[in-house]
Write a structure and sequence with these properties.
The protein has 566 residues and is α/β, with parallel strands linked by helices. The protein is built from 22 helices and 17 strands. Bound molecules: phosphoenolpyruvate (PEP) and magnesium ion.
Length: 566
């Protein structure tokens, strides 16, 4: 949405609105990232320079080396996930299979640029067919193709260069190689025209705590260098603001954020209503990091992430070792909620996921895999029980993608048989609608707002053009959360939220106002969410919940809640 706002002096100002992802206020000139190679350079390229297929292949090899070197140099300057992403991109650029496909095209008489395109296209088709995380690598492949083409036609490589002064990065969408290694000192905010709250851009921005707005129509029409005031909580981008006002808002925001960073828990509202603040973890390392922070435990351990690159199912003993590493840091008086394998759809696991489903998001994923393969679930539950006994940590177990009361009951029986607390995730709308009956058979529920939003709004959570629908502030999604929370209140059983919604400080207050008893989130969000809750009363949270539920859309809901809570 683009709104004209009152011009101060001569300058026409505009207000763009997108989906807010990471809160924070930033003021800096726009740096537009073009992901396309200069069309003029491509038009001026004369393919007859490489009429000989072997010479053309040499030019391809040289371009690939340049691209891979660039990734490797960037990787050397960063660490952790960013370095891994860049190293993987360098490997993909040098891939022998890709080179073979290009060589075949050249030998069959294609010109150089057409051969590169056809070779990459062949791999795009294969990766897309594999679905899930492999399909996400298509973005990397297309990014690599553009970089190779740029080198061949003598144009600068597209993507993010190294900014020399503070800027707001504005792009259509960002490739993993663009976001890996961003310097938050120089990149003050991210604004993308496409992409949703679970897009790659959003995940990296959250990790780096860079204010971020995605799904912003009109962003790429901004002129390079235009001063922008980005509000990552409101989802607004104001062009040419009065400099004094903008700087004052940035300073106030920085002060507020510094105050948030000092929050030490435990989670409670200003008037003392307790809310458990928990962490989402993927493995022993992330569990140890989270365990060092002010959390009361883990609200979501995504077990399938440990097995994405495994061909065969690990033994019960090996699984118990992996789970034990996550349970270990929470031994004393905290607890860990372990989620059984959520394999399938966007997280394919070779030894569990079914091949060739027409529509994997609506297919045999999560708990449904155990219908045809109950041994898989039983062995995992044995391993979890073993890890719980080895570490002495209080362990709860929940199943993903539960749709019926019978599924909940069957799962709970298996978990109770092993002496552990049993719960189900609320990701399918049917689970929310029948929460009161599910709570008769399970000990707790945990709402996965990422999938609950996808299935309520019939909008693919990975789709880059549906950000306004894949938004947990959608009143229909909030209504289902409220129904589930109320069922928990009636049954006197805990109902938490472990999807991305819990990481949004304003939405966290709304959830608490509905009666949600725990919030589980990425470690980076723990302090901002905990601090926000400590500043509001429970009654204010209830008012915020009412306002968000009765809003006409997510924009109106956010505005109403901000007006109430400040
Ligand atoms: C969810 O769907 O909200 C959730 C927490 O599960 P995942 O993101 O792993 O699908
Ligand atoms: Mg889910």
């Amino acid at each position: 949405m683009v709104t004209e706002i009152t011009p101060p002096g001569d300058t026409a100002r505009t207000l763009l609105r997108g989906t807010p992802v990471v809160p924070g206020v930033a003021y800096a000139p726009a740096l537009l990232v073009h992901t396309e190679v200069s069309p003029d350079a491509v038009a001026a390229f004369d393919p007859s320079r490489y009429a000989d297929a072997e010479e053309a292949l040499e030019a391809y090899d040289a371009a690939v080396e340049g691209v891979a070197d660039g990734f490797a140099r960037k990787a050397a300057g960063v660490s952790g996930d960013a370095a891994q992403v860049l190293t993987a991109s360098a490997g993909l650029a040098r891939d022998k299979g890709l080179r073979g496909a290009v060589r075949k095209q050249l030998r069959s008489g294609e010109d150089l640029l057409a051969a590169v395109h056809a070779g990459v296209d062949q791999f795009v088709t294969v990766f897309t067919g594999m679905g899930g995380l492999m399909a996400e690598r298509v973005t990397d492949l297309l990014d690599i193709e553009r970089r190779i083409v740029a080198r061949l036609v003598g144009a600068p490589e597209p993507g993010v260069g190294t900014p020399e002064e503070p800027c707001v990065l504005v792009a259509e969408d960002l490739a993993p190689s663009d976001t890996a290694g961003l310097d938050p000192e120089l990149v003050r905010a991210l604004v993308t025209e496409r992409g949703g709250p679970t897009s790659h851009t959003a995940i990296i921005a959250r990790q780096l705590s860079i204010p971020c707005v995605v799904g912003t129509p009109g962003a790429m029409t901004l002129a390079a260098g235009t001063p922008l005031l980005v509000d990552g909580a409101a989802g607004t981008i104001e062009t040419d603001p009065a400099a004094d006002d903008a700087e004052a808002r940035v300073a106030a925001d920085a002060e507020q954020r510094a105050a948030l960073a000092t929050w030490t828990g435990p989670g409670r509202t200003r008037d003392g209503v307790p809310i458990k603040i928990l962490a989402n973890v993927a493995d022993g390392e992330s569990a140890r990091t989270a365990g060092g922070g002010p959390v009361q435990g883990v609200g979501l351990f995504r077990t399938e992430l440990s097995f994405l690159n495994r061909k065969d199912e690990p033994s019960v003993a090996e699984q118990a070792g992996i789970y034990g590493q996550v349970l270990e840091p929470f031994g004393e008086d905290r607890y860990v909620v372990v989620r059984t394998l959520d394999a399938g759809s966007d997280k394919p696991v070779a030894f569990a996921t079914l091949e060739g489903e027409e529509n994997p998001a609506l297919g045999v994923r999560g708990l449904r895999l155990s219908f045809g393969n109950p041994g898989l679930l039983d062995r995992q539950l044995d391993a979890i029980a073993q890890a719980a006994a080895d570490t002495g940590t209080e362990t709860w177990v929940m199943a993903p993608m539960v749709a019926t009361v019978a599924e909940a009951e069957e799962f709970a029986t298996r978990v109770h048989d092993r002496g552990l607390k049993a719960g189900v995730m609320v990701e399918v709308p049917s689970a929310a609608l029948l929460a009161h009956r599910m709570l008769e058979v399970v000990d707790f529920m945990s709402i996965g707002t990422n999938d609950l939003t996808q299935y309520t709004m019939a909008a693919d959570r990975m789709a880059t053009d549906l950000a306004h629908l894949t938004d947990p502030w959608q009143p229909a999604v909030l209504q289902l959360i409220a129904i589930t929370a109320e069922a928990g209140r009636q049954a006197h059983k805990p109902v938490g939220v472990c999807g991305e919604a819990a990481a949004d400080p304003q939405l966290a207050s709304v959830l608490v106002g509905m009666g949600i008893t725990s919030l589980s989130m990425a470690a980076a969000a723990v302090r901002p969410v905990g601090a926000q809750l400590s500043r509001v009363t429970f009654e204010a949270c209830e008012e915020a919940a009412e306002a968000a539920l009765s809003a006409s859309d997510p924009v109106a809901g956010r505005d109403a809640v901000r007006a109430l809570l400040g």
